[in-house]
Amino acid sequence: MRRDRTPSRSTYQGRPLARPDDDVVDQGLGFDLGTLRGRRRVLQALGLGAAAAGLAACGPPAGAGGTTSPGEIPEETAGPYPADGSNGPDVLERSGIVRQDIRTSFGGPSGVAEGVPLTLELTLTDLAHGGAPLSGAAVYVWHCDREGRYSMYSEGIEGENYLRGVQIADAQGAVRFTSVFPACYEGRWPHVHFEVHPGQADITDASKTIATSQVALPEEVCDTVYAQPGYETSVAHLAEVSLDGYVVFGDDGAGVQLATVTGAVTTGYTAALHVALDTRTEPGAGAPPPPPPGRR
């Protein structure tokens, strides 16, 4: 089961930060190795077996394609702001998390995320059953706001929980979220995080997570959106990163993770992605957050 932890600027997952004023991704190689060792212990504690522990210890990093079936979406980092109970707050325990419109906070907080409208459509299929729709699966989605901040973590919005929500896949394996276009922040290509769980009853049980991955957004659309008011900081940050060289999607230029985006600034955009999963594959439990290019 998930464990509740109190966020701290001086610790991460109960371990002291060597550089308290820097992000978790900037704590150095020693800290990253400790994170990897910790994840192996979690896998073993959850009873996923020696094979899963061996993959975590010796296999290629998530997203490298070494533990996925052909066409299967790669496992990617959940990052330091998942709010799924693995690093501090747990929004998945809260009533109201199953919702389509994730632009507003819920359950008390009343914040609203502003920005260019974005509809996110994910269609899940299961390679273990010939590519059949993965109907009934629960998909948890989260991403940053147009300022590059994550609700429940970033300074000033710790009490908000917007841009987080769960939807249940329909008979075609599809989920749809109403949101806003996320920012590009330092060292990160514009993206949306998601986790897939067998069903709604399983979203609070980390041992049942099917997959953790990310959706990449195409550069040309990002250029257009970031020219709009409120996205000013994203312009410079996008110019500093490359999709081909990005530490998460760079192994194949996003490949099966790059969304098809249609629409316009005036009417809003729709980002669609086919998410092929293999329920026979051991989940990677998300990789530790990678360092940005050129930084350790």
Largest sheet: 5 strands, mixed
Report the CATH architecture: Sandwich
Secondary-structure element sequence? EEHHEEEEEEEHHEE
Continuous helix count: 4
Strand content: 15-25%
Helix residue percentage: 10-25%
Would you tell me the overall average pLDDT? 80
Low-pLDDT segments: 1-9, 11-15, 27-66, 287-296
Could you tell me the number of beta strands? 11
Rg for CA atoms: 18 Å
CATH class: Mainly Beta
Q: Note the overall shape.
A: globular
How many structural domains?
A: 1
Pfam families: Dioxygenase_C
Keywords: Dioxygenase, Oxidoreductase
Region (Disordered): 1-25, 62-87
Organism: Saccharopolyspora rhizosphaerae
What does this structure look like?
The chain has 296 residues and is of the alpha+beta class. It has a single domain, classed as Aromatic compound dioxygenase (Protocatechuate 3,4-Dioxygenase, subunit A). The chain is built from four helices and eleven strands; from the N terminus they run E-E-H-H-E-E-E-E-E-E-E-H-H-E-E. The strands form three sheets. Strands 3, 4, 7, 10 and 11 form a five-stranded mixed β-sheet that branches. Strands 6-5-8-9 form a four-stranded antiparallel β-sheet, with no helix packed on it. Strands 1-2 form a two-stranded antiparallel sheet. Strand 3 and strand 4 (132-133) form a beta hairpin. Helix 1 (29-45) runs antiparallel to helix 2 (49-58). The longest helix is centred in the first third of the chain and has 17 residues, at 29-45. The protein is globular, with a radius of gyration of 18 Å. It starts with 10 loop residues before the first strand and ends in a 19-residue tail after the last strand.
